[in-house]
Fold these 2 entries.
Entry 1:
Amino acid sequence: MNLTEEVGTKARELLENNVVDCVIGYERATDGVSARPLFVYQPEETDKLIFDQTCTHNLAKYLLDRKDKVTGIVVKPCDSRAINLLLSEHQIERDKVFIIGVVCPGIVETGWNKTSEKLQAACELCQQHTPVIYDHLVGEPPISEPAPEAYPDVAGMEAQSAAERRAFWEEQFSRCIRCYACRQVCPGCYCGECFVERLDPLWVGIRIAAGENEMWNTMRAFHLAGRCIGCYQCEQVCPVNIPLSLLNRKLEKETLEAFNFQAGIDAETPAPFSTFEKDEKIGIGE
Amino acid sequence: MAVDFEPRIVGFLCNWCSYAGADMAGTSRITYPPNIRIIRVPCSGRVDPLLIVKSFQLGADGVLVAGCHPGDCHYTEGNYYARRRFALLRPFLDYLGVEKERFGVEWVSASEGKRWSQVVSSFTEEVRKLGPRKSAMPQEAVL
């Protein structure tokens, strides 16, 4: 049985037995090659569900809008970490979600009307092929343990001088049109009022200027420090192709080195900023 | 680098230790460079990373946060949380091209007037050596 059939069968079973009210998965988009999110409420509609290497979206964010109803959701390994993040931050309840985890072959680069064989950059580097949390697993998990995370891209940036990095990021941020798509798509960005929309204090001014763009991009990334689960939807949706994963991954690397913590691996370990050790030496004020 | 460059430094000082320490330096007539503009905050744990990034955005050449020594926080544990936040913020700002030396975090107690003057002096010297924060982009008006 292929992944599409397995996902569809499980979804049908869940809806027929009234285990869930809705299953969130993927369907073929109208261009015929890429995928788009699909909410299935009726067992008959489960035939539309698909799963293949074009299913790029992280659907976990939709759970935030369905807190009261039991929802089935199709997740890849990175998306499953988003569920752990939301559980640990008490945004969703475990018994309100039924997680259909899919063993991920890696997602390919797609666009409207076109698809390719080439894996997305994030998937090239990804070490996690089995979801970290699920109620039902689809696909055969690999036998080998996931390799430790490596950060060749971040190391490349670190090797440059501060002036070079500054020039690089200024150029990148200068293109930002502050559409906030990166925030809208992020499962970790669910604040009722984002700092960027506050008028008093006005952290980010409304003028389109390099300084304001820099402020937004710096703080967006930092608010996800120790929380980014690495689905890189932000980078996917960026209309001006700012390499946001380079920012997120730097913080990921630092969090791993300083606190030996990876976001979303489980829902129990306290987040690094919510706890401390009295005698730790982490390079501040020593 | 201009010879007459005077760095603009923003200081966030905790009310209970470092601000009193700076006061102690004053009442003891200990001098230190006047480049620092001190903002009094209730605790180093109050210093939101937003404040630091905003300071840099508005043209600060350096930002210095000072609080109670670990274990001495007036609110028991505020500085422990602050320490963790800054431990990530510092390398992150460096990654974005704001040199590590421009963002200092120091623990200064209310009795350490002398130490406060040394901390400010050496921090100001470091920032002076780095020079003004240069922008690769056309300079926008600094507020």
Entry 2:
Amino acid sequence: MKISIDAQLCTGHARCVLLAPALFTDDERGYGVVIGDGTVTDDQLEQAHKAVAACPERAITLA
Amino acid sequence: MASDRTAGWAYVRDGGDVYQGADGVWMLTSADAVQFAHRNPEIFTSGPAFDSLGSPVPLVPLAIDPPNHLRFRKVLDPMLAPRVINAMEDQLRVQIRELIEAFAANGSCDIVTDIARLYPTQVFLTLFGMPLEDRDMFIGWVEMMVENSTGGAAPTEEVMVAAMALFGYLQNFIDAKRAAPGDDLISAILALTGDEAWTNEEMLGLGFLFTLAGLDTVTATIGFVMLHLARTPEMRARLVADPALIGPTIEELLRLELPAPLTPRFTSREVEVCGATIPAGSHVRLCLATANRDAARFEQPDVANPDLGDRGHLSFGGGIHRCLGSHLARRELKLVVEEFHRLIPDYELAPGAEPRVVWPSGTLHLESLPLVFPKATA
């Protein structure tokens, strides 16, 4: 599975960075950035689901 | 509302996803409706929505609309980004520890007067590089302005007096920093040049907004979080045993007991939201409190359940005006809970205490939260 973030919707709540540190980092403004190509391994799935649920902007997709 | 927010917000929600209230103001109550407004800031404008607070300058960047808004947030976001807050954490932890140690041996405290009113202002003064001795003067001005904000009507004379005192203080401070820059947020903004440079009026507006939006909101939330933990000893015991629960517990209480439940906006044109048509020039309230309890989005919406994790609430708003201080506010809350329970893991409401929420008010908050506990040795 892959995780992605819609940069048009992200406004820097940075919940994904805190809850899924293996999948997201933050840029200088504190906006979430996907690490690498967004591939989510099985042991990262729990983090991925947490990030999706915690995003107030509903900007994160796991597919 | 004062004694039961679940019932109070259910009443607001019962009017529908989008409706015009008896006072003529349009209410957006569902999560989808609020999110739609957040995503369309050029329709749901912020500029005229904050006039009642009595600010003589535009509240930068909250009351600034696109496209100018981005110019400010590009500069401010990095100054309050998580990595910046991380660097401040040790200093902020020392400050909260000192506040708690001051009463830990007494066996009693009032969370509101001994921590919640003091700490957010100290953190603000630290962030801006202002003297901590000015704390109590600041608190006086801000409480006067916030407690008397009416959300629509003209400001009263008392509010204007407090606003002008704060305004004068900020101007003196900016002038001093211009003359002798330091290692602080104001000096960093003053150092901007060319197209990035801010006017004096914009600097004042920023200082004004930070004091209005960043102090009493955290004060209120510290009260709500500690009240909940005082009333749920089993939750508190779990949290003391497993500090990883502190984050999700705070998020759940932010979701249910948010201090600023309604966000004002004005429509720039006619717009359809969730089947309702709102005319151009309408006063609108985004009801974050009911959006946070929307059953279409949240399982068990009226229960604080940290086991469900951070559920993506809207208590810090959303869209381009997402609370600039959200990362700082969350860190303050975390530090209060961590340090209080480190020193005072067991406590209860003082006998006979029945904490009540002040309502109506610009900011939902507790008047008092007296606790008793075994005397701790620091």
